[in-house]
Structure formats: structure tokens, C-alpha cells
Amino acid sequence: MFQKGLKGIVAVQTAIASVEGDKGELRYRGQLVHEATKGKSFEQTAYFLWYGHHASRTELATLTQDLLSYRQLPDYLIAVAQTLPIETSLMDGMRTLVSAYQHTEFKELESQQQAIALTAALPVMTALLYRKSIGQEFIAPRSDLSHTANYLWMIKGEMPTPTQTEALETYLNLTMEHGMNASTFASRVTISTESDLSAAIVSALGTMKGPLHGGAPSGVLELLDEIQSPEKIKTVIEQKLAQGEKIMGFGHRVYRTEDPRAILLREKCQQLQQKDAWLNLAVLAESEITHLLNAKKPGRALYTNVEFYAAAIMRSIQMPPVLFTPTFSIARIVGWTAHALEQQQDNVIFRPQSEYIGN
User: A single Gene Ontology molecular function, please (predicted)?
Assistant: First the structure.
């Protein structure tokens, strides 16, 4: 049976995550995402997705040390980054560096350790490329910071506040994995040929680059920029609705109820909103916009999606839009590698049929 885009076709059985759009449920390893990530660090959530159980104190210490050890990029890789044309996009640069990340020590690692190494190295690659693109010196990673805080440190060259780290970590944890999305499928297809893990991540990054999948939530940023202050929310939204414009950040192609990730990001923003004007604006805007949408479009059930609060969090931590998709990738590499490892355990090469419709 032909289905355009393979919509509704089951191609994989997985124990990593499930997405129930009608119920508005996302589960990591069988646990509702809020249960799996509540109070957890990036390191703890990554461990759970990779290994299928929550880390003990010893297991977490080992993973943390491994991630720290793989933060140091080989000198040749830094040299490769420096030779790329200045106009190279960050996503293209990330693909290039991951593809070149094939030194002897890495090749000798078993697959799980390669997954950890790539996860640790990708934020460093991203920061290196970003700093180069704005004409600033590379800031070396620190060994005394968490995965999330270190990424912010390398991007900005200044210590992130606890509020900034907490907000970004919540976003990273909630976007690590989301079932059989396009980039995850690409990673599994590549690894199914018995190619290597780096190649699988290159495939995933190339897929994530596409605006239909990993495109930055620029529309939400433009909306919040236009609103600017709580007093202008109603006026701006009513004008857009009167002109038939789409309200960015509302509605989702999978979830028919609220996006569970948006709910958790909203809760985090509510906790932190008094410490940040942008988070405060986002919380107030969502409430007012939802009210207006329900009044103007009854029965449509238009809820915020993950991009709405992702945009607010990125703006609150002063993350430039060019880093939105790379940062999404820094989270999702955990899911990509988890799926690639699962594919390796019971592998059959993907080889779907095509239906000829030519003359």
C-alpha cells in the first residue's frame, strides 16, 4: 500500500520512545516525559534514553566523566573548522566536523562510547563554528561545568546564570527524543547499511537542517518582538486574526491536544518568569492568545506547540536565532544515537519498494 511520505506506515519497533498524538502523550522508555525528566540533568536524561533505566550515583558519575573527557576536540578537527569558508552555515559546518571526527582513538571505541563521545563533542563543534562565524576566538570547554552550562559558556564566554542554565536544560531534555521523526529515521536508515555512527549523525544533521523539520522558530520570535509588552498582546493578536494571519507557535501536526513538551516548558517558564522579562511575556501572551483563539475560532482547540516556549527560552538566554537549529541538534543527538544503537542490535537494511508511474 502506497502512502506518500510513509505516513502511518510502521517501519520500526522501538523501546526508546512513543508519541501518542491523540492523547497528547510523549513517553521516554515507557515513562511519561514529565516523569522521566523531572528534576533530571541533561546527563541523567541522556543516560535513561541510552540505557533504559535511571542511572545510579556511580553510573551517573561514570557517564559525567566520560562526557567531560570527550569535550576536548583533536587539534586537526579545530584546524578543519578554521579552513571552512566564512559563509558556511553552522549546520553544514557541524556535518563536516562530525564526518571528520574519525581519529584512531574514536574508531577503537565501542558503539555506546562513540555515542557518548559524539554527544560531548557536538556542542564544542557548534561553539567553535559559531565563534568563528562572528569573528571571535574559540573558547575552550571547561571541566567544572555541566554539559548545558558548558555549552552556554563556550558560546558567550561568560558564566551563565542558574536561571539560564535551568531554562535551557529543560528545553534540551524535552527535545532529546520524539519518536520516528525525519532525522531519526535518516540515522536509522544509514546505520542499517552497517555504516558507522558518525555517518548516521551526518545523515541526521542533514535532515535536521531542512526548515520543515528543524527550522528555527523565527515566526514566534517575530511575534514576541511585535508584542514587546503585556499591554500590547490583545491589540496585536486581534489585528492578526482580523487579517487572517496564522498565529505562530500554536497548533501541531501530531498532537491533537496540548503538546506535552509545551506544557512542561510553560511550567518552567512560570517558575522562572519573575526572573526574566521574556519568559514573563511568553507566559502572559500564551494565556491571552489562547483565550482570543478560543473566542474567535471555537472548536479548533489550538494549543501552543514546543516552538512557542522554545523561542521564549532561547530569547531569554540571549541565544541568537542562527543557533536555534544547532542547539536542537545538540539535544536530539541523544535520540539519534539511541536509535542507531537499537538498530544495530537487530538490524535489517531498509529497502522499501517504489511504485513506477512513468510512461
Answer: citrate synthase activity
Q: Is the pLDDT of residue 218 over 80?
A: no
Find out whether 234 and 286 touch, Cβ atoms under 8 Å: no
Q: Is the pLDDT of residue 217 over 70?
A: no
119 CA to centre of own chain: 12
Residue 288 forms part of a structural domain = yes
103 is catalytic: no
Query: Which of 178, 252, 286, 339 does the annotation list as catalytic?
Result: 252
Residue 281 lies in a domain: yes
> Of these residues, 177, 286, 307, 342, which one is catalytic?
307
Q: What is the pTM of this model?
A: 0.92
Residue whose cell numbers read 528555527: 216
**pLDDT tens track for 258-299:** 788 988 988 888 888 777 888 888 889 988 988 888 887 776
Residue 246 belongs to what domain range? 216-317
Is 278 a member of any domain? yes
Q: Looking at the 3D structure of the chain, how many domains does it have?
A: 1
Residue type (1 letter), 254 = V
Domain assignment present for residue 146? The answer is no
